[in-house]
Amino acid sequence: xxxxxxxxITGGAGGIGLATASRFIRDGWRAAIVDxxxxxxxxxVEALGDSAFAVQCDVTKPEACHQAAxxxxxxxxxxxxxxxAAGLWTEGDIDSVTEAEFxxxxxVNVKGxxxxxxxxxxxxxxxxGSATLISSDAGLQANKxxxxxxxxxxxxxxxxxxxxxxxxxxGVRVNAVCPGDVMSPMLQYxxxxxxxxxxxxxxxxxxxxxxxxxxxxxxxxxxVAELLWFLAxxxxxxxxxxxxxxxxxxxxxxx
Length: 255
Prior knowledge:
Layout: E1 6-10, H1 15-26, E2 30-35, H2 38-48, E3 52-56, H3 62-76, E4 81-84, H4 99-127, E5 130-134, H5 147-167, E6 173-179, H6 185-194, H7 199-207, H8 221-231, E7 243-246
Parallel strand pairs: 1-2, 1-4, 2-3, 4-5, 5-6, 6-7
């Protein structure tokens, strides 16, 4: 087994996942970049260099999650930390939600996270490692018009807390991180898809909900990555079963 620690990142080829891989690699870790898109994977690994390797995976398929974990162990020999960052957004009133859309969101945001955890848990027990599951401010408070997304991200928070209890005796920590709006491809997709043809107005409406007023801005992926990096370190050993907000106070309460 290699003496270099290994982070396993789903959704690793873009946004928070890519920034997180870069942060871990900067401090000497190897990174398994786990993503469904082969082109994005190739681009990400080329940008990250020799410390990163590509693992193609559709997290909605449990067998694919297990194959991704096995491939990572075959290449790197260990898994020390997991970041479950694969996710997608949807919004709309309950009247307009189709079964297909509901199933698609739950498959990525809940099923994919659950079976990612199942696939890596044996390796984490062996390394006495940790996992961070990416939820959202929408997993802690309601977002009007986003019932399906909120339900999916709330499930991630309780999954993290439950796994933290289940795995504590094995020396494995599990936390949820709950970002607000992050300046990422997912946010761009969200605004382009649901902005009614006026992407800037959609983004400005999101910013208007922040307590910073005129100085409000979106969180950068690198800022989320810094928190994810810390949670994998020995200094974070007391932190497990937490749901940590990183949202400029967005989820603190109604203004």
